[in-house]
């Protein structure tokens, strides 16, 4: 298969990048996708800022032989600790786009607002700063969704449901909006909605990040463009195959479907 003329790389410790790659693919299917995961070192949440910065730099550098036109850091923790270093090293030649929990649009709708995130993020100065900046006058609760990211990574639906049930039990009654503060959580948004009910508005950022990526590339959405899809998968810097297990999540299934016939899928 011919390679696309433009590629975008996504870096994360694990599967959180799937939703972001899927969102960009929906807007510009002609952009080739390079997915750089770091299974040897995930999760990043418990690691020190210096470790996270070192690891995300390594994951981003591993994509450079594929000549990405932009790199998306599809991880909140890595964006906090590594975005500055990545931009200092790679821009302006390669734009670097980070992720931020969607607290501003959630707060704009009024409170109460809950933010589900990893334990490390819920207790971070970073999250407190976002709340102070965008939701100072809105009742906001930080909820540690203990084990949920790890359950999503494992693909175990029972563990995912248990993680969601725990986070829901820690979420105060009457919350109107929920911010997904970890990129993994969007992969199971249907299960989260089922647990919380339709009265809670979910705020996530893949589409906003995809649109920002296109702006940085000077492109407009073109959802009817010819499909390129996933062109490379890197696992802690090593070339890998697309795991068939990604198909347990809708975003992963769509990426796998688009890759059918171009790649050998691993079991």
Q: What does this entry look like structurally?
A:
This protein is of the alpha/beta class. The chain has eleven helices and twelve strands. The model has no long low-confidence stretch (mean pLDDT 91).
Class by SSE composition? alpha/beta
If strands are numbered along the chain, what order do they take across the biggest sheet?
4-3-1-2-9-10
User: What percent of residues are in strands?
Assistant: 15-25%
Query: Share of helix among residues?
Result: 40-55%
**Total count of strands:** 12
Biggest sheet details: 6 strands, mixed
Average of pLDDT: 91
Distance between the termini: 22 Å
Low-confidence parts, pLDDT < 50 over ≥5 residues?
none
Shape annotation: globular
Over the alpha carbons, how many angstroms does the gyration radius reach?
A: 18 Å
* Tally of DSSP helical segments: 11
- What is the string of helix and strand elements? EHEHEHEHEHHEHHEHEHEEEHE
Q: What structural keywords apply?
A:
four-stranded parallel β-sheet, alpha/beta, 12 strands, 11 helices
């Amino acid at each position: 298969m011919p390679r696309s003329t433009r590629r975008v790389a996504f870096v994360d410790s694990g599967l959180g990048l799937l939703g972001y790659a899927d969102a960009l693919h929906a807007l510009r299917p002609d952009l080739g996708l390079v997915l750089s995961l770091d299974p040897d070192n995930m999760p990043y949440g418990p690691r020190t800022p210096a470790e996270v910065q070192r690891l995300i730099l390594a994951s981003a550098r591993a994509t450079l032989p594929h000549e990405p036109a932009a790199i998306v850091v599809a991880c909140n923790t890595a964006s906090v600790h590594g975005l500055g270093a990545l931009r200092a090293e790679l821009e302006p030649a390669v734009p670097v786009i980070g992720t931020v929990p969607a607290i501003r649009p959630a707060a704009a709708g009024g409170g109460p607002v809950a933010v589900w995130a990893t334990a490390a993020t819920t207790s971070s100065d970073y999250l407190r700063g976002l709340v102070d900046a965008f939701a100072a006058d809105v009742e906001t609760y930080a909820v540690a969704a203990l084990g949920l990211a790890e359950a999503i990574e494992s693909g175990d639906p029972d563990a995912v449901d248990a993680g969601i049930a725990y986070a829901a039990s820690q979420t105060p009654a009457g919350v109107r909006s929920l911010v997904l503060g970890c990129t993994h959580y969007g992969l199971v948004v249907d299960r989260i909605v089922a647990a919380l009910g339709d009265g809670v508005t979910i705020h996530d950022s893949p589409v906003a990040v995809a649109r920002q990526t296109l702006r940085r590339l000077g492109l407009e959405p073109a959802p009817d463009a010819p499909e390129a899809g996933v062109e490379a998968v890197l696992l802690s810097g090593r070339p890998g195959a697309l795991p068939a297990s990604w198909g347990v999540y809708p975003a992963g299934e769509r990426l796998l479907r688009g890759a059918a016939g171009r790649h050998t899928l691993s079991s």
